[in-house]
## 1
Amino acid sequence: MSLEALKSEVPEYAKDLKLNLSSLARETVLDDQKKWGAFLAAAHATGVRPVLKAIEGETADKLSLEARSAAKAAAAIMGMNNVYYRFVHLASAKDYKTLPAKLRMNVIANPGVDKADFELWSLVVSAMNGCGACIDSHEAELRKHGVSAEQIQAAVRIASTVNAIACVIESENAIAA
């Protein structure tokens, strides 16, 4: 499956999502590894089968095995961290901020790809999951690595479009069931 096949599953009322998907696939502000890793991390964060299949297929020859693994790892670890740190951030009791997380996060220290790429993919998933604390943390790290606001915005645009397509497809599948 490919992005073209995925677009064919998006109903006409969501035409803007198809257009955005096409333009983001041609985005040049991100190098290919950052861009396609963002697509893959976002797809895994949705967990929606047609989205996963299409983006897995599209990225198969665009990303190394290490990059593919790291993008998936970013989705996995942020799936955990976003829940935990969103709780810590939103809880009225402030003592949670001083307690150690006691959650294994070894992949963050050694993701197998350039640190900035992994941070970008972690930001993509954090934006999708709505964790402000994680967004701030990853955005600050990206800036330290010289990633521009335009590059960060492009990655988040990918996340928002992939997420919206997943929501539309799930909604349409729910109606059809």
## 2
Amino acid sequence: MRLSPSDIVITADDRPGVRRAPRQISAKRETAAAAPANAPRPKAKRRLPRLRLAMTPLQKLAGAGLLATAVVVSGMALWHSGKPQRLIHDAGTAVLAWTAETGFQVADITVTGRRRTPTDQLVAALGARYGDPILGIDIAAVRARVEALPSVRAAAIERRLPGALHLSIVEREPVALWQTDKSFVLVDRDGRRIPGALEGFEDLPLIVGEGAPSRTDELFTLLAAEPELAARVKAAVRVGNRRWNIKLDDVEKGLEARLPELDTEAAWRRLAELEKTRALSGKQITMIDLRIPDRLILKSAREPAVNTASAAPPAALAGRER
């Protein structure tokens, strides 16, 4: 029997070029198949559009800078309001109060090295009272206040836990009396004035003249070169804030030695040698001028000033001194 074209049925699986896939039914299709035909379809979620900014690296850097500036400005404003400081201060005060309650409080204060410094000045400089938290004392600040006192040269303070403070001071040592107008003030080698009574220091050398205190160390360094002669110095007068006139043995009637502005130490040693070899002060000499290196100008109580050569023999010099 001959087949006609109508007798051949070509299914989708038999069409050339079409591969048969395994039958898979998704859960969505099954749900859709199970749902009634007239059931409403669920609405799909609508996605909101996203805003995307296309920024260059420079714009990103500028934005980060603005953000950092805003943070800094806000922090500064908060800091200047004083709230963080008050919070820190209150917390610190509470901690110190607690340490004092546990026994770390000022119970004993000792001082060594004090001779002339008034006690009330030391108490004010310490700024500490019995019962204060000993851990709350600013050691550096106390030391600075104590060393600012006129009579104190150096100071050291230490905590001796749990409750003792020890203060050690080195007072300024008077080396001379500075005459200003008609008053007298003690000074140390640094030229610092030392307030207080003069009792016990009346025999110190007297310094007079403009700028004399600031040159005190220079003066005593010079005098120390000849200790025996230095022990006889009673006064030193600063002339024109340039040089010294030295008075030996007596402020009013003693021998006056006029030292030069330059080569002062050489002139001072020369005077010491003359005193050892010729004893000028014992020959009614009231003034000796050493400002000219190769000459002496002498003045006695009976005669006017006389120029003598420093190289002259002792006999000739002695004759002229008479």
## 3
Amino acid sequence: MSSIASANKKKIALVAARIFQTALNDTNAPTGRKLLKKALVGPRLTSWYPEGIRKMDMLFEDPDDKRRKVKLERMKRRGKGPPKKGEGKRAKKK
């Protein structure tokens, strides 16, 4: 009876793997999935992403960068911009 049950379990596992598109590893052999799931580091990480758009088109202007510059200019006019070098909080304490 147990051989029939184990055969049915194998068939069910095979059908489930086919339905959910997963790999069936009934022999528990090492597959290397841990290595493939590991985060990319170093040159592999940089080769994964395409070249930046700034390098491809020199006339491209990032909208976020443009918005940041406009906001900084507005704050400078109100006197709320960043202090000049050597005029920060730490220099005022002395």
## 4
Amino acid sequence: MATDIRFDTKVAVLVRDDLATWQRLNVTAFLVSGVTHAWPQLVGEPYADADGTAYLAMLGQPVLVFEGDATTLTQAHERALRRDLTVGVFTADLFRTGNDDDNRAAVAAVRRDDLDLVGLAVHGPRNAVDKIVKGARLHP
């Protein structure tokens, strides 16, 4: 029987609302991979079906995906940094790179306030994350 579990923390991804669907999905996937790397304790146990076929483990808590315009992303980024939370970022430049080394170089080449953010991810206390994504809409 399922029970409602209230987590003390929240994982949120915020994507820019002018991205194509494939871009939104790509940004979300990349950002969630950063969350699982930074907080491996959030990952549950591997899955298996009734036949014993093994499947990958997944995050053990929901990921809420929000959307907003460029200003909303910039504000959320600033709020997260003011709260000393680690943020995952995805910039428009990353759509033009093809590997992790080039991705990191593209981000490193731009000052924080000039990043062309198209997505960000944050994990932290529920109330802090709620304040960070304030103004964003839950992705439909």
